[in-house]
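Let us practice reading a record.
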Amino acid sequence: MTKTIKINQNEWRVLVACVDNALDTAGGDFGFSDEISRYVTDLSKQQVAGYLSQLDSKGLIECHEREKINDEHWVSQMSLRDDLREACYGGDCTTGESVVVKVLGTFKPVGIGEVRETPAKENEAAANDDRETKMFGCPVVDLEAMIESSPTPAAMMALSMLSDAQEEIVMGHAETARQTINRAKYIIGERLTARDSQGRAV
């Protein structure tokens, strides 16, 4: 019996980036998880780390321990699932997307066994996702997945995001910085602030 693995759209994109990195690094044999954020520049490093953790837990990739290669550099090697790695070798798949499509098929937002909502609810959900993406840079469900899968404590994650926002402001990326700050505020509000039954901070 084949086990169905469900991944969301950003996980699919990060998986494509992993395959692209493995193809660029060693013809598909392995890649480096530290470099994946360069392939999906609209996602923050924290988001990419969260999606990598999700893909690892689902057995699509394997992220190895960080290793020191000289006095200044550490790397985190990453390997692909066997069927993804083998698809890199044939020669007919030359991009990460072509490899992932060959093995997993084209991304389908509605997984097997899930019930598609009515058009009105679909439109409402899409509009909500769009509002959340404008506010946080991603839907809240993806932000929650990143928080849940990250080994970093919530307080440290929020502080790291605020540091990232400072760098983004210096680089002139005001909109990205605004979204990064909103993600940090979300974590502080939802994970670090106790609330009473009316949702008020206590």
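A brief commentary: Residues 51 and 168 are 21 Å apart (CA to CA).
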